[in-house]
Amino acid sequence: GLDRYNPETTTVFQDYVVSQCENQTYDCYANLALLKLYQFNPHLGRDETITNILVKSLTVFPSPDFSLCLALLPPHVLAPNPAANSLAEAVQKLNTLHSQLIGASYDQFWSTLDGDDLYADLIADVQGFEELMRIRQAVVISQTMQSVDRAVLESWLNLNGEAFDKFVKETCGWSVGGSTVSIPLNKENEARGTVVRENVKFDQFSRMIKRAYEQPA
Predict the structure, then answer these.
(1) Among 146, 148, 110, which residue's Cα sits nearest to residue 130?
(2) Cα 187–chain centre separation
(3) Last residue of one domain, picked from the residues 113, 144, 175
(4) What is the C-alpha separation between 88 and 179, in angstroms, rounded?
(5) Entry pTM
(6) Start-to-end C-alpha separation, the chain
(7) Using one digit for the tens of pLDDT, what is the confidence trace for 74-116?
(8) What are the C-alpha distances in Å from 110 to residues 72, 83, 119, 155, 182?
(9) Which residue in 100, 135, 145, 214 has the fewest CB atoms around it within 10 Å?
């Protein structure tokens, strides 16, 4: 098999990252292996490949992939006041997006993404990035809600009008009625009572009562 930590395989992994970006596929283990190669061989590292891996990992939130990738990068990338147009600046910009996603601040995510030209450069290589992000956001929303106000959902998905209706109905399979969007029940968003039964034998119960009345020595 392919030796994951052989420096000679670096170009193979780098080409694979390009393929993932172009074809909307994703392979976390291969990407982590490449970052590990960069960790062992810093001179082989390519900033563009690193940022592409981080951008791809955002498209599978709320999985821990972004944090796993971040942990393999040099510590200096998170140092305050990064130089302009540096890897550190790019990583910290992407880390801001990640924090907003994990905090479910979806409207802030889109505002941040649209508010800095650097983000446009960072996501340029990842085909369908915005659509992938909306799908992931919709998945998380569907796991926690049965209905949501249309205006709120529009801000979360950064869509409105016909584009919003098409995404919600055709991609998500949700229904729109007036100012409310209804989400079908699923095992995550359906409220169910849980009954927990614990069998305690009589002798165990009696020992518990006895200990409760025992005076400390």
Answers:
(1) 110
(2) 21
(3) 144
(4) 43
(5) 0.84
(6) 66
(7) 999 999 999 988 999 999 999 999 999 999 999 999 999 999 9
(8) 27, 24, 11, 8, 23
(9) 214
